[in-house]
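Recap quiz, item 2
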Amino acid sequence: MRTSQLFISTKKEAPAEAELLSHKLMLRAGLIKRLGSGLYTWMPLGLRVLRKVEAVVRSEMNTAGAQELLMPAVQPAELWQETGRWDVFGPQMLKITDRHERQFCFGPTHEEVITDIARSELRSYKQLPANFYQVQTKFRDEIRPRFGVMRAREFMMKDAYSFHASFESLQQTYDVMYGAYSKVFTRLGLQFRAVAADTGAIGGSGSHEFHVLADAGEDLLAYCPTTDYAANVELAEAFAPSAPRAAAAAAMTEVDTPKQTACADVAALLGVGVERTVKAIALVTVAGEFVLALLRGDHNLNEVKIAKLEGMADFRFASDDEIRAALLCPPGFIGPVGINADIRVIADLTVAAMSDFICGANKPKLHLSGVNFGRDLPEPHIVADIRNVMNGDVCPDGKGGVLELCRGIEVGHIFQLRTKYSEAMNCVFVTEQNTQQAMEMGCYGIGVSRIVAAAIEQNHDAKGIIWPAAMAPFSVAVVAVGYHKSEAVKAAADQLYAQLLAAGVDVLLDDRNERPGSMFADMELIGIPHRVTIGDKALAEGMVEYVARREGEMKKIALSEALEWIQTQTKA
Amino acid sequence: MRTSQLFISTKKEAPAEAELLSHKLMLRAGLIKRLGSGLYTWMPLGLRVLRKVEAVVRSEMNTAGAQELLMPAVQPAELWQETGRWDVFGPQMLKITDRHERQFCFGPTHEEVITDIARSELRSYKQLPANFYQVQTKFRDEIRPRFGVMRAREFMMKDAYSFHASFESLQQTYDVMYGAYSKVFTRLGLQFRAVAADTGAIGGSGSHEFHVLADAGEDLLAYCPTTDYAANVELAEAFAPSAPRAAAAAAMTEVDTPKQTACADVAALLGVGVERTVKAIALVTVAGEFVLALLRGDHNLNEVKIAKLEGMADFRFASDDEIRAALLCPPGFIGPVGINADIRVIADLTVAAMSDFICGANKPKLHLSGVNFGRDLPEPHIVADIRNVMNGDVCPDGKGGVLELCRGIEVGHIFQLRTKYSEAMNCVFVTEQNTQQAMEMGCYGIGVSRIVAAAIEQNHDAKGIIWPAAMAPFSVAVVAVGYHKSEAVKAAADQLYAQLLAAGVDVLLDDRNERPGSMFADMELIGIPHRVTIGDKALAEGMVEYVARREGEMKKIALSEALEWIQTQTKA
């Protein structure tokens, strides 16, 4: 394609509302355009990228034996009422009332619709397993949509759903899909990691997330460089310290901490390590119970883990007023010593193994040192793993490795749903023994539009985007400097362009009448992997200039060898 | 692909709610599955057809210089308020309220969104013309969705929008798009007709519809076999009779018509042609005025034409009670003679040239014969073309031809919108003279999902669908009779299948363990254009059987020549 036939709209600055780098670059490169909150138009250049991602996803889904179909975006409420999710899904579901006052939603996901299809179309074990997928527009009414297409309200998703006569069959397909997902992200040229994941609101048992690794990622991932262990920090197990709790050695003493509320500041004041401190976090359960969670000063609460303890589902953090009412102390100085015996204390495994520790005194501007369970306060009511793992923690797989942490952007998620939906919707089949049985189900999602943003978070520099080969809107840019002034440049550029097209190379000829610097800046911002510059000066010597977007070093090559050179580069 | 890997779900009977043949066949062939009223899932086999249509549409849009983008399905109300269509569009627009109580719609069309993009991205005459298209899911909340995907609520549409610095530029692109549409339907192998059309609610000036010709079509089209004139009957002009009104010759006489209310019955009773009769149709304007329209007995009222007369927009038919109140006569015997002078009479051109005609007497069970304007009743208040053209009418292009009528299914519609939207939304550009001017606009729609149903209406027989080559889900079916029993059949089928795949032929190998009759019936119902049957008996002589779906005659060909034979057939 020629730039003169392509709508290009690059901008020097991104709008102020764009916070995330990928969002800024997508707006500046003119890949997307905002229509409203969480609503984006994919402009011609951006759509080329999106379609390339789609094509790779389709190809691997087909290879994995999944069959493409296309379900409606608009779904009747009745189906969601069968699984109880009409009320449970929450305000993220965009509900719609039609002209006949019937209720629908703009589908945020399609478990109910596909299960409705399966229960009427799949009747016998002979028809199982079956695996269906679609690439489709979905809508989730995020309370505060942001980060562009990374967390848009309307977005493009590949969702697949598999149906099975047995759990073994589900596990087989799950493994095949795990492999297919790995191939998708490998083919797209992305650094990614598959991690064990929490199953959350979708329900079911086993689950893995696929993350594109990037510093801006919302998720924290733990992995072991020496084994294949990898898990979302939400899920990664933290072990108790290997040494048992030491005996009390110090006396409990009040220490003045006039301005020190954070554990690190208290430790610094006392000249000890922060790992000698314990912090208390005040929580309130849905039943209204006030609960105190104890963590080592340098540890962080894992909200997913603690929510799984009895009575803790959907807990919230206590307000300052609630803390004062329960502990008679302002936040910043609270602790587990001397509190009302009715208050449930949940200690992390690490805290339970500590002795002679430092914690808030439950008195303004005071902390306590030399605190010991059993002597200065009762043993905690509950001892459990409620913290996030940290760099250097023992890997939970028991193979002796040590965990490292990194950040990721979730772009894929696979679930073993088991019979959660099939039982609720009576999606049964006739077994070989002529009995009826609920189907085992799996579901498998890829955030197609989010991948585009995630790829940019991982692949960019100060000049703009650096597309991996498989996602680039064009593979090669031929920049013709002086196309409208120099016959020689025009002839050489037109010829190379035609040769590349004939060789099947996805090439963009920049034939605009712009300053060279502006053309280079556009091609760099847009992120085209290979650039050939044709200008009068080099051309006089039969040469053109080649630059790889990622490396950035200019190399002169003979015009006569340019075709072969580019073919070699783009095949690499 | 193999049928063992493809979800096929054919049915002997279609559900009772399916009225239209294409709807029945699509359900029976398992191309679509109903989710709710006007909501259909495209099953794997149906989606293959839909994607083939999409691919042809995309290819021709790209060739025509249109650039693909993808706008959100969900659109903010504010944009529609700018053009005033938020209130005007009516209940077909599916309105949505989000969690923040902001109003949106599920886009029924995208003029507002694309104009919003154009006004911020296209600033100068140098950027014009520009032509953008998308292939996208749309929603129109039809009051009574029916006919399957022919008139679904959620459907797939290709919509393009062009922007211009001048009307001449718009006309050029309009002509290019007219040509591209013709190529699309030609490539899809459909018999179609482009007709001049009314611009309706979208607004603007020139407009053409593209119709797939089929007896079940909702639209009536008029065309001239000897010239290139073609128009929707809504629009086709009917001329006044060439001879002036003859002088009155008969006296006005009451005739008993005890049971005759229809003009044809009255004419039969009197032993004269129905073209001697005049029927009166009672209408009520939006202002509440009672109006009488006069048409020749064998002519039909053209509601689009009469609605364009002053005060007649959005008229409705009068109720029986309103007729009795205004004319003091029951329906069936009403006429223009002796009525209240306040009642406006609109006569068709043909009626105004009639003399000695027959009409209702405005008295129960009586008609009048020998009626004449100017003598028995006043000249009509308005004389205008308000009827549908008929077979044999003079062609309005003045070239002396005669009109014929046929039925069509509207699958495409192109409009010259002019500045209707650009003026309402301040979509202006800077001209070469440095002045500001509203852009000229065109819009161009294709009902992608409707094409699938329309193709079936045009291409079917008692056995099922007969796909045109370009739309077939598979080009060739290799039916292996006894695949699981005969080594020879399996070997021959596998080999031919592999050869066809390698040759790039879109082939389906039917390797199911079913009765031959059932496999043949499925392939015929599904409509695969070419079928090769491999069975033990013919194979013993080195032969296979070939049948073209449309012709239906079996032909034996040598297995060794089967590949070449099929390649020849599929390229034809």
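The mean pLDDT of chain B is 95.
Chain B touches chain A through 46 residues (CB under 8 Å).
End of item.
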